[in-house]
Design brief:
Shape: globular
Number of domains: 1
Structural class: alpha/beta
CATH superfamily: STAS domain
Distance between the termini: 22 Å
Low-confidence stretches: none
Number of helices: 5
Largest sheet: 5 strands, mixed
CATH class: Alpha Beta
Mean pLDDT: 96
Helix content: 40-55%
Strand content: 35-45%
CATH architecture: 2-Layer Sandwich
Order of helices and strands: EEHHEHEHHE
Strand order of the largest sheet: 1-2-3-4-5
């Protein structure tokens, strides 16, 4: 699992590459701590190269959403594949996040 973070002005783009499964979640969570700490702007979770997400990965998305809401920011989930869209639909995440193609 690879995470690339790019901050420009008030927008932080997080590229998630690979499988966000339970073993990778601890590493990803640690990598995203600075993003959650400074979540007053817009956070874009770019999932075009995300192949899989587990419940632990979903929890990371929720933590970022909660941090952004507390600081007046927002989270946009971008370019999810069909399988991840189905997971989002089954878990109600489609209603929690702004999803963009």
């Amino acid at each position: 699992m690879e995470v690339q973070i790019n901050k420009q002005d008030n927008v932080t783009t997080v590229e998630l590459i690979g499988r966000l499964d339970t073993p990778a979640s601890a590493e990803v969570s640690k990598a995203l701590e600075p993003v959650a700490a400074d979540a007053a702007g817009t956070i874009i979770l770019d999932c075009k190269d995300l192949e899989y997400i587990s419940s632990s990965g979903l929890r990371i998305f929720l933590v970022l959403r909660k941090a952004a809401a507390a600081q007046g920011g927002k989270v946009i989930v971008k370019s999810i594949n069909k399988d991840i869209r189905n997971v989002f639909m089954m878990t109600g995440f489609l209603n929690l996040f702004q999803i963009e193609d």
